Amino acid sequence: MANRYVPVYIAQSQTPHGAFMPVFQLSRRGVLLGAIGLVWSGAALAGEITVSAASSLTNAFKEVAQRFEQQHPGSKVLLNFGASGAQLQQMAKGAPVDVLASADQETMDQAAQQGLILTSGRRNFVRNTLVVVVPAGSTRSMRRLQDLTQPAVQKVAIGNPASVPVGRYSQRALEAAKLWPAVQAKAIHTQNVRQSLDYVARGEVEAGFVYHTDALVQKGKVHVAFAVPLAGVIHYPIAPAASSSHIVEARQFVNYVLSPAGQAILAQHGFLKP
């Protein structure tokens, strides 16, 4: 089997202590995330597809991929999780991707404008909600966005709005409440929503913006303080990549996500029907 180099993107994110660190994720079934480097990899096998998905889909898509493989013998799903904006950059730089599942419409719109997805196969497949979480056992009163401005709240985990959809949702909600400047001064910008969740779970920040489904993953370590009001609905779109070399399998995966079986798995992880 021939070997090849696959581009990998390793990004930096701010820690609650002010330092910057490389951020990446490695899925048991997938590939490395982040900013610019090279990783040695074997050539893609027949029936092997790479699915780039938003970090908030990590637990659900691992199960979806497993069930998909069981129903499609000979198929293999490689999962690449991270911020939707970073994944768009990966695709634009030529990273091998067969399916893109993002946490916002903006990222998918940009992918369509750049000719990176098959727009005919684009579908919304789940909904989510934005919440503010605090460490489990926190005694601070936290019931509304205004409470984030109290002096006792010194650090708030917020995804980087430039590349992380949950960060954009958070910024828009705070701007609508005329609180963005006050909370931005306390913001610890993260590279993806799961990093924000981890900071709260470890008690390194007083609060953080995450999706409801992420809060369920760490429900023993974080507490949902309140739901964040938004002007619109958080829909997640999915689409086959235009450059996919396994378009049949890519379409099959998208169809499975949309199927009753796929939707049932997503619902078990807290996602709402589109």
Descriptive overview:
This protein is of the alpha/beta class. It folds into 2 domains: 3-127 and 233-268, Periplasmic binding protein-like II (D-Maltodextrin-Binding Protein, domain 2, 3-Layer(aba) Sandwich); 129-227, 3-Layer(aba) Sandwich (D-Maltodextrin-Binding Protein, domain 2), CATH 3.40.190. The chain has 9 helices and 14 strands. It has helices at 58-71, 84-92, 105-113, 165-176, 180-184, 193-201, 212-217, 247-258, 260-268, and strands spanning 3-8, 11-14, 20-23, 37-42, 48-54, 76-82, 99-101, 123-128, 130-135, 156-159, 187-190, 207-211, 222-227, 234-240. The chain has a 5-stranded mixed β-sheet. It has a 5-stranded mixed β-sheet with strand order 11-10-12-9-13, with helices on both faces. Strand 2 and strand 3 (20-23) form a beta hairpin. It is globular and about 55 Å long. Mean pLDDT is 87; it is low at 1-13 and 19-44.
Question: Short description, anyone?
Answer:
This protein has 274 residues and is α/β, with parallel strands linked by helices.
Provide keyphrases for this structure.
single chain, 274 residues, alpha/beta, D-Maltodextrin-Binding Protein, domain 2, 2 domains, five-stranded mixed sheet, 14 strands, 27% strand, globular, disordered N terminus
Write the layout of secondary structure elements.
Elements: E1 3-8, E2 11-14, E3 20-23, E4 37-42, E5 48-54, H1 58-71, E6 76-82, H2 84-92, E7 99-101, H3 105-113, E8 123-128, E9 130-135, E10 156-159, H4 165-176, H5 180-184, E11 187-190, H6 193-201, E12 207-211, H7 212-217, E13 222-227, E14 234-240, H8 247-258, H9 260-268
Parallel strand pairs: 5-6, 5-7, 10-11, 10-12
Antiparallel strand pairs: 1-4, 2-3, 7-14, 8-14, 9-12, 9-13
Helix pairs in contact: 1-9, 2-3
